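anyone seen this seq b4? input:
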Amino acid sequence: MARSATVPSAGQSSADVLESRRRVWDQRPLTREIYRRYFEAIRAEFAPGRRTIELGGGAGNSRDFLPEARVSDIVLTPFVHFVADAARLPIADASADNLFMVDVLHHLPHPARMFREAVRVLRPGGRLIMLEPNISAFSRLVFAIGHPERVDPAADPLPIDDSPVFTATGPFASNQAIPSRIFFRDLKRFEKMFPELRVQTRRLDSVLVYPLSGGFSGPNIIPRFAHGLLWQLERVLSPLKRWLAFRLLVTLEKK
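predicted toks r here
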């Protein structure tokens, strides 16, 4: 997953990165098919109700598949309905049926603040659905070789003093290990900190197709005629998700 010419550099602004990713989205049918499946999986997790909001959806990819959702991001882009910080949402208490986000949690320097906001704005029975990187033995190796975002499993994602979990800035400021650590290694601590949020789903995904597609940050090395075979191989390897998976889908329900 080394960078290609279509990938934004670390010196670009967040808005520039989102614009670049939208161009990649338009150019890569395999990437769109992967995310179509992701968004179908997210929709299957929705609680009943009409008010569904995406957090951090600045490139607008969800709008192709979840047109009912209102899209927000911390920066204004042509693809969002409104600007919002996940830690300070302009949403009334207990008024949202669903919040969802794709590759957002691991970019938040204060993850606990987002979870507190989710507790505040979700109605009872409402859900927070997150699709995030998963750190497996295989994905960690690939991320280390060719991905611009760091992986630090030792960093505490839920510090008691609410200090930032990373201090870097810019569009690639993140720790891809945050989701895996919270919802596996530190799950009991998370449940104690946020007793209002019940874990409904915790599912691993993407063992082959996602890394070979290049995603948004690498070269697309698979010719279109081979896409069908690649999906078949994905199914064959699915029993090995524990060691190979690149993705983690988590659904939390407000009690």
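Strands lie at 52-54, 70-73, 82-83, 96-102, 122-133, 197-205, 247-254. Residues 14-254 form a domain with the Rossmann fold fold (CATH 3.40.50.150). kinda curious what u guys think
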